[in-house]
Design goal:
The complex is a heterodimer of chains A (552) and B (108).
Chain A (H helix, E strand, L loop, with lengths): L5 H22 L5 H9 L3 E3 L4 E5 L5 E3 H13 L4 E4 L5 E3 L7 H10 L16 E2 L13 H12 L14 E4 L13 E7 L5 E7 L11 E8 L3 H15 L10 H8 L1 H18 L6 H10 L13 H9 L1 H10 E3 L5 E6 L10 E3 H14 L3 E4 L5 E7 L3 H10 L14 E2 L14 H10 L3 H7 L4 E4 L13 E8 L2 E8 L11 E2 L4 E2 H18 L6 H8 L2 H7 L4
Parallel strand pairs in A: 6-7, 7-8, 16-17, 17-18
Antiparallel strand pairs in A: 1-2, 2-5, 3-14, 4-5, 4-13, 8-9, 9-10, 11-12, 12-15, 14-15, 18-19, 19-20, 19-21
Helix pairs in contact in A: 1-2, 1-4, 3-12, 5-9, 6-8, 7-8, 10-11, 14-16, 16-18
Chain B lengths: L10 E8 L5 E4 L5 E2 L8 E2 H13 L7 E11 L5 E3 L2 H8 L10 H4 L1
Antiparallel strand pairs in B: 1-2, 1-4, 1-5, 2-3, 5-6
Classes of the chains: A alpha+beta (552), B alpha+beta (108).
């Protein structure tokens, strides 16, 4: 894992001190809210419905046990005993007081964490594949370049006042688990014929009010040139992105309006100018220095099958069910990748209590080389667990109510905080997720349905990624009543797609029936072993729509 | 100022969040910010609301709170305000998915 150097420490501490002074001046009345608001947002402090909310950055979703324990103690000491893991691999606290925020941030700084780049019109916290460094067939660990991008983008003076926020995601694997095609910039690590690492660059993707799939504008940017290339994209955007209309200010609108070819041409021109000076090249030594932080932990040489595991699987059907759904093959023989579901049946997607966080920290320290990942699907991952240890890890997770065996299944939903917490929401998301989870609680039924990704947003800003749900649900407000619009066929991965709207929206008491109707249609029409998304791609909207609205 | 009332709303209450901890508060008849919606002053009609907004957003009232705005309420049988929207119902009580958190734990 990356460790702060003296500059990182200095920057983060200095920011805490600065914010402490700003908070004091706000509380004394010296600063108005108008003056203070942009300052608090630069430090991750939002105002939500019931209280302030603090969004803490977890760069590329990687945490140590020590950091997770700190997140737990902050939940306990500054909040109400829990935190909420988000679709940007961050954690949010829902109840911290403004007056205690500087102390909270200082505690975060103790474990090399902060809330910088979690708000405002800057380059936000970089996200990456949550299986980075653990999954087989990875071209390169995406966290290496993610960390370099983090260092380049943090407090970048030229890009501190962009037209709008800016999000970058990286995958080092052909299977895109980071939804890179729905980011302002999406990066895929590639290797050329000579075996050199470089980067494929996509630009102009996004969700929200106007969803777009990013356009590929570079096949292979050599590693040393990537920052110059990103700098070129940012300059084009900073110059041409609209500042007159917040709804049209994201780079996706610019790319859509001038077209991918024109965007590419402008970026190339700017890149040539920057590159001609040569001083934007990433020093090879620096690349190697960062790479060293992400080298493999000291894996043991183990056989590919574990007798301990086989016995446990044979003895405990619950463990076997969990193993089947939640454990993924590791690149290293004798190890597995463990997904910890934060979607208990009927629970709140992404929430974890302080005690659960402590439990996960302990387990990660003992059994996963001290490493934890946050997924954009609001789950957690123990990236490197010995197959021999899986049964023990499972038992520990189960005791903390963390062993729900539903990864990738219908109850493993993304849901934004919605109107239960969020100042921007039009409708509640969490209760809908809970109702769907309860309706499909039975694991046998979930397994029979197979992979099905439901994603729920409480407003058009789409924090719940509804556009890319196999089944997407968008909450809308119609004259004070919550309604829910359904989309079908969305996908966040390498086969990126934006879902199609089925038709008129449903009330809260009808939406779960509507989802069940869609699932039943799928079960009836699928070919054997065909996933929901594949059936939808084969048949399209008509059969689903017909049955969904037949009684209306 | 945020818009959380229907056009032509008859009864409205002024709300804000407390500066130091973000707690939801309402303006009462004495010009103080109180935590319980039951204690809020109800403005009837546009003119009364305008006066109340002027009071709420001026010193000393505006000190110690942020995000001041009016929202629509209806009066219950005893004349106490009930929020007209889901949003303000949730703000007045707490998250509907966590009955153990927010005002709902103290005010009932």
């Amino acid at each position: 894992m990356y460790r702060y150097d003296e500059f990182d420490h200095q920057m983060v501490r200095a920011r805490v001190d600065q914010f402490r002074d700003q908070v004091e001046r706000r509380l004394s009345g010296e600063l108005s809210e108008d003056a203070f608001k942009p300052l608090r947002l630069m430090n991750g402090v939002y105002l939500q419905l019931h209280a302030y909310m603090l969004r803490v950055a977890i760069p590329y979703g990687t945490l140590s046990s020590r950091q997770m324990r700190k997140l737990a103690s902050i939940a306990r000491d500054y909040d109400r005993g829990y935190g909420h893991f988000t679709t940007r691999q961050n954690i949010q606290y829902n109840w911290p007081a403004l007056e205690r925020m500087p102390d909270l941030l200082e505690e975060l700084a103790d474990v090399e964490m902060h809330a910088i780049q979690t708000s405002g019109n800057c380059i936000r916290n970089v996200t990456a594949d949550h299986y980075a460094g653990a999954i087989a067939d990875e071209i390169e660990d995406p966290r290496i370049i993610s960390e370099i991008i983090r260092q380049w983008s943090t407090f970048h003076p030229e890009f501190s006042f962009l037209p709008r926020k800016f999000k970058i995601a990286v995958t080092g694997h052909a299977n895109d688990r980071a939804a890179i095609r729905f980011h302002d910039i999406g990066i895929v690590v590639r290797k050329n014929a000579a075996g050199e690492v470089g980067y494929e660059v996509h630009v102009g993707g996004g969700l929200g009010r106007t969803p777009f799939i990013a356009k590929k504008i570079a096949e292979f940017v050599p590693a040393q040139k990537l920052l110059a290339y990103l700098e070129a994209i940012m300059r084009v955007y900073n110059r041409l992105g609209r500042r007159d209309n917040a709804y049209k200010a994201r780079i996706k609108i610019l790319v859509h309006e001038i077209g991918a070819e024109e965007m590419q041409a402008r970026v190339e021109t700017e890149f040539a100018r920057i590159d001609g000076k040569g001083n934007y090249d990433l020093p090879v030594g620096e690349l190697e220095r960062i790479r060293a932080y992400f080298r493999d932990p000291d894996f043991l040489e183990l056989p590919s099958d574990s007798e301990t595991l086989s016995q446990a699987l044979a003895q405990d059907p619950d463990f076997a069910a969990w193993f089947k759904n939640n454990v993924v093959a590791h690149k290293k023989s004798g190890y597995g990748i463990v997904n910890i579901s934060l979607k208990p049946i009927g629970g709140i997607p992404g929430d974890a209590s302080d005690r659960q966080m402590d439990t996960i920290a302990d387990i990660a320290q003992a059994y996963s080389f001290d490493e934890i990942r946050v997924t954009h699907e609001q789950n957690l991952v123990l990236p490197h667990v010995k197959l021999d240890d899986l049964a023990t890890v499972y038992a520990g997770l189960k005791e903390a109510d963390l062993a729900t065996a539903n990864i990738g299944k219908i109850s493993d939903q993304i849901a934004c905080p919605g109107l239960d917490y969020c100042n921007l929401a039009n409708a509640r998301s969490i209760p809908i997720a809970q109702d769907i989870s309860n309706r499909f609680a039975e694991l046998q039924r979930q397994n029979d349905i197979g992979e099905l990704r439901i994603k729920i947003s409480g407003c058009i800003n789409a924090c719940g990624h509804h556009h890319v749900g196999h089944i997407g649900i968008l909450g809308v407000d119609k004259k004070g009543t919550e309604f829910y619009q359904i989309t079908l066929g969305g996908a966040p991965d390498e086969n990126a797609a934006i879902g199609d709207i089925t038709g008129p929206a449903f009330t809260a008491d009808k939406i779960v029936d509507a989802v069940e109707n869609i699932v039943d249609t799928y079960l009836e029409l699928r070919h054997s072993d065909e996933r929901f998304i594949d059936t939808y791609r084969r048949l399209g909207m008509p059969p689903f729509k017909e049955r969904l609205y037949q009684d209306v | 100022m945020a818009q959380h009332s229907a056009k032509g709303a008859q009864f409205q209450v002024i709300t804000a969040n407390r500066l130091h901890d973000g707690e939801v508060v309402y303006l009462d008849a004495s010009g103080a910010w109180v935590a319980d919606l039951k204690d809020a002053l109800i403005a009837e009609g546009a003119e009364a609301l305008e006066q109340l907004i002027a009071q709420a957003t001026a010193e000393p009232c505006a000190t110690g709170v942020l995000d001041i705005y009016p929202f629509e309420v209806i009066k219950d049988a005893v004349g106490q305000p009930i929020p007209a929207s889901v949003r303000e119902t949730i703000r007045a009580a707490g998250p509907t998915v966590r009955a153990d958190l927010g005002k709902q734990t103290e005010l009932r």
